Amino acid sequence: MGKHGLGELEHQTMLALLRLKDEAYTAPIAEELETRTGRRTTTAAVYIVLRRLEDKGLVESVLQDPGDEGGRDRRYFQVTELGIEQLRQARQAYTSLWEGLDTVLAKG
Fold first, then answer.
1. Would you say 59 and 38 are in contact if contact means Cβ atoms under 8 Å apart?
2. What Rg do the C-alpha atoms of the chain give, in angstroms?
3. How far is CA 37 from the centre of its chain?
């Protein structure tokens, strides 16, 4: 999974970025995470994770003027090629770990 791996919230945040495409800024990311995981995540927590991912080179951001909408500039994020590769490696590792556990986890 790469040298440093991905934490759970980092992993989930990057997947949310891919889903949101051009609308990936902190508020919609937090909403997407809550919708998909059932776990409430504050925009402050998302912002911290995004900065950490940016420092690792896994995401990049651009500050955009809101234009006619008015208000403050928004920072939009997207996953880099390195980030995509980290997600591929993580998926492969998790798939390998899950292999053969369906019957064990189905018991209940």
1. no
2. 16
3. 12
The Cα–Cα gap between 87 and 11 comes to 7
**Distance separating alpha carbons of residues 29 and 51, to the nearest angstrom:** 14
pLDDT of residue 35: 97
Question: For 25-56, how does the pLDDT look when each residue is reduced to its tens digit (9 = 90+)?
Answer: 999 999 999 999 999 999 999 999 999 999 99
At the topology level, CATH places domain 8-95 in Arc Repressor Mutant, subunit A (1.10.10)
Which helix (H) or strand (E) covers residue 31, if one does? helix 26-37
**Per-domain residue ranges of the chain:** 8-95
Buried b (16+ CB within 10 A) or exposed e, 86-98: bbeebeeeeeeee
pTM: 0.85
Helix/strand/coil (H, E, C) string of 54-79?
HHCCCEEEEEECCHHHCCCCEEEEEE
